[in-house]
Amino acid sequence: MKDWRYWLAEQRGTLLALGIFIVMFVIYTSNHPAGFTANVVQTAANKGVLLAFVAMAQTLVVITAGIDLSVGMIFLLTNCLASWLVVGTPMQTTLGVIAVLAVGLLCGAINGAIVIYGRLQPIVATIATGAVYYGIGLLLRPFPGGSVNEDLADAMTGRVFDVVPASLVVLLAIVLVIWVPFSRSVLGRAAYAAGSSETAAYMSGVPIRRGKFAAYTLAGLLAAIGGLFLTFFTYTGDAAYASGNAYTLFSIAAVVLGGVSLFGGKGSAIGAIFGALAFRTIGDLLFVFDFDPLWQPLFQGVILLVAVSLGAFALFRVRNRLEWFL
Amino acid sequence: MPKFIRRADPAVLTAFACIVLLLFLGSLYSRSFLSPEYLLQQLKVASFLGVVATGMMLVVLLGQIDLSVPWSVAAGAMMACAAAAYGPAGVVLAIPFGIFCGVLIGIVNGIGVAYLRIPSMIITLATNAVAQGLMVVYTGGFSPQDSATGAMRYLATGFAIPGVPNAVIIWALIGAAMVFVLTRTGFGRTVYGIGNRERAAYLSGIDTRRVVMIAFAVSGGLSAFGGVLLAGYASKAAQSMGDAYLLPSIAAVVLGGTSILGGRGSYLGTVAGVILITLLQSILSVMQMPEAGRQIIYGVVIVAMLLLYGRAPASR
């Protein structure tokens, strides 16, 4: 096989997600009353990047064959925190942003420490830490409120050169600064290897613990970037339990749509980003086609159900029934 | 030492020791904490969680998890109340119909996990979202009948035996049935077998997929039944009434010494876990701890107790 075929096989999930997104987005904009304008793209991008950041966070953990059910709550907690800290003079704002990101990093590190060094199951551990993060968020913002540095917020949610949505530029920058270095580093390879076969990776002397820990920690950071952006969009902090849950849920949907294997070891954050954008566009299609908004949760739920069921196609490739139980 | 103590699971003993500790702390705070009325009241509140946790335990014993609890509970409650709107026949069928809806959700979960081999935490999250969507459409589409029937209220708050709330009796019956199934039937043995190693169970000629499927259906049905009882207790159904049951039901099962990886655990432990969680909640509410503090303490206690005795074996 030639090199490009390997590349294609590796990127198949990502390219599929890109394809789904483009098709959905074309349907969306061509039926939108305003059409394909900078404004429509900006609004769509601003809604999409929130989920894209959380989906990237989820991807990092899913690659290690784990799952993080607390990403939505880290997202909420950092949103509440940012509504306190990201205000005032440029200096104060900068410190506030750093503090918010540091808290996200810390939340991720706590998850990682409990799962890897405490040897607890990721699912139970992150449900429990999620409750803690939600509780702290609620402590910070018992009622929706707070404020944010509006100059920064407007810059982040506006357009660069009046054409490109700034949020997309930030998303691209985060991919270049966090995802690309991570996936090419030893730690990133270790995370993939741990997800693919932990025993084999361990036997080969791959630093799986450090790799997994880095994945959980960076996941917290990415969720915090999402929370920061939520504050930029809404100008407030709000500890809404249902919203945190929804983001956790949708992040899994985005990851699945983005071709990341829930069994670990396969997929990329780029795919998850397109998965997130596609998932958001699918949800918005209802409005374009004049459906009752009431149907949106059901519609999204069914998409999620169908998306996770797609994984079952792998069963057709099973040669021996015993492979079911691996 | 009596034989039953020596044979007991250390996790279950730890859980019971924590219950005693909580009772002691509570009695320091308030004199009426140890009164029979208060304890029976706690047992009544615990029984709703107990019914839900029974189903969760069955699934956890298989090494799976059921995250569709929140909206299975809500769907059971809302559908039972909805059925009550359809005349006398509806009133009679309200409770079975509510449970039936939960079983349906459970069957979808079971098909996904057993036959499509989708990880249980993913498919159950998805069915939870679908159930939520259905309920939102239902309640928004036309105005729902939201009051519980007399039978539901009687089950949740009545007294068939003087002094013992009906809810407690129901929990005891369901618990006894679960103990019987787990310890005395082939199905129960199979559940433990699958939890230990599904491949081995399959190679022993067990139709493992059917067992997994049934377990999820039972879990869905019991969640919905918990919702029916809860609706009877509050005398109406509400949108997010199930949210408060997901973490506690998992926590109760795991704190009771059932391994989250499956194959190991006893119902006595789950009972201890349920009572432990209920007492913890009760003390926090007696202390007038706000919701935020409760969530934090909850999460911390669960992680701490899991670190004490719920750890997975070390890397090879």
Brief digest:
Chain A has 326 residues and is an all-alpha fold.
List the SSEs and their pairings.
The complex is a heterodimer of chains A (326) and B (316).
Chain A: H1 3-31, H2 38-63, H3 71-85, H4 90-117, H5 122-140, H6 150-157, E1 159-160, E2 164-165, H7 166-184, H8 186-196, H9 198-203, H10 208-234, H11 241-257, H12 269-288, H13 296-310
Chain B: H1 3-7, H2 10-29, H3 36-61, H4 69-83, H5 87-115, H6 120-141, H7 150-157, H8 166-184, H9 186-196, H10 198-203, H11 208-234, H12 246-255, H13 267-286, H14 291-309
List keywords for this structure.
heterodimer, A: 326 residues, ABC transporter involved in vitamin B12 uptake, BtuC, globular, B: 316 residues
Describe the structure.
The complex is a heterodimer of chains A (326) and B (316). Chain A is built from 13 helices and 2 strands. In chain A, helix 4 packs antiparallel against helix 5. The relative contact order of chain A is 0.19. The radius of gyration of chain A is 20 Å and the shape is globular. Chain A is mostly helical and 326 residues long. In chain A, strands 1-2 form a two-stranded antiparallel sheet. Chain A has one domain: ABC transporter involved in vitamin B12 uptake, BtuC (Orthogonal Bundle), CATH 1.10.3470. Chain B is mostly helical and 316 residues long. Chain B has a domain of 207 residues. The two termini of chain B are 36 Å apart. The chains are: A mainly alpha (326), B mainly alpha (316). Chains A and B meet through helix 5, helix 9, helix 11 and helix 13 of A and helix 6, helix 10, helix 12 and helix 14 of B.
